[in-house]
Amino acid sequence: MAINIAINGAAGRMGRCLIQAVAETDGLELSAAIDRPESSLIGVDAGELAGVGKLGVVLSADLEQATQQSDVIIDFTIPEATMALLPLCAENQCRPVIGTTGFDEAQKQIIQQTADRIATLLAPNMSVGVNLSLKLLDMAARVLGDSVDIEIIEAHHRHKVDAPSGTALRMGEVVADALGRDLKECAIYGREGRTGERDRNTIGFATVRAGDIVGDHTVLFAAEGERVEITHKASSRMTFAYGAMRASKWLMQQQTGLFDMQDVLDLRN
Ligand SMILES: NC(=O)C1=CN([C@@H]2O[C@H](COP(=O)(O)OP(=O)(O)OC[C@H]3O[C@@H](n4cnc5c(N)ncnc54)[C@H](OP(=O)(O)O)[C@@H]3O)[C@@H](O)[C@H]2O)C=CC1
Ligand SMILES: O=C(O)C1=N[C@H](C(=O)O)C[C@H](O)C1
Question: How far apart are CA 167 and CA 171, in angstroms?
């Protein structure tokens, strides 16, 4: 039997890619497409929104019904919309696959509480390449140790509303963990004016917002005499959407708990 998939934020840049990916993926069926009640696109066929032809599911704002009639809901929205969704996921036993970024600590706790009641996946980047890069970063940080300066540079399209990207922050966490540091204490988010010399123990972040860049991330490990750069560049949002399909299928085998793409791709150890 097909897995019923709802999409929250279905009219957005990622939402439309997700509709296309569900339509292309064997074993998955689109059961609901949700966006803001104020959206002028409410009532439009989701397949037509995504450019894949009529699918017989119209864009709606009825989250209650969507979570009741779906096995999984894929959420690529804004943190406030995710927070409104989670109680319905737990109540209606609909597994959330969360791609939204920009959560604060209190919101992350609510995600954890939801995961105690229903299997939940949270990943700031669902591409295979970025998740492989996280493994490479762990290895690079352990080998290069405290003798390098570490900087994380990310670039995204002009419409992105959060910074640094969720992926850059996760990269920072992976590197900090590998070096036994706490990212909250060692992160430097941008520099200006007379900053003084660089402190070796910091991890710097730089953000670029321009044009239609889908998502570029570089982590730079710079020593005296050499440097290592680990770079990932996404050229299509479909790479994230296909990752979300893989995550949805995988999550159906879990009952409770909080997971990420490292679990789905078996990269945990
Ligand atoms: N994990 C990953 O692999 C990836 C994560 N992302 C993240 O996904 C999120 C969305 O990105 P993107 O698609 O580019 O953004 P968009 O702004 O294009 O899409 C978000 C959609 O959510 C809608 N929305 C806003 N509020 C609500 C609500 N209360 N209920 C339902 N829908 C709502 C928006 O409507 P409206 O426009 O009318 O406000 C919009 O249609 C971001 O946080 C981004 O960082 C992006 C790519 C990959
Ligand atoms: O907003 C985006 O577009 C993206 N957001 C994610 C993030 O914040 O890391 C992932 C991807 O880079 C695209």
Answer: 6
100 lines ligand 2 (CB under 6 A): no
Q: Reply yes or no on whether 184 is catalytic.
A: no
User: Does the annotation count 108 as an active-site position?
Assistant: no
Distance in angstroms (rounded) separating the CA atoms of residues 8 and 4: 13
Span 216-250, pLDDT tens digits: 999 999 999 999 999 999 999 999 999 999 999 99
Tens of pLDDT, residue by residue over 168-206, are 999 999 999 999 999 999 999 999 999 999 999 999 999
CB 248 within 8 A of CB 3: yes
Was domain 3-122+237-265 assigned CATH 3.40.50.720? Answer: yes
33 touches 102 (CB < 8 A): no
Angle at 245 between CA 240 and CA 246, to 5 degrees: 95
Query: So what's the architecture of 128-234 in CATH?
Result: 2-Layer Sandwich (3.30)
Position in ligand 1 atom list of the atom nearest CA 99: 1
Q: Catalytic residue, from 108, 135, 159, 160: name it.
A: 160
Per-domain residue ranges of the chain: 3-122+237-265, 128-234
Q: Which residue is it, tokens 């003798």?
A: 147
Task: List CB contacts of 113: < 8 A, sequence separation 6 or more.
Answer: none
54, 108, 135, 156: which one is catalytic? 156
Residue pair 67/45 in contact (Cβ under 8 Å)? The answer is no
ipTM of the complex: 0.99
Task: For residue 258, give the DSSP letter.
Answer: E
* Single-letter residue type at 6: A
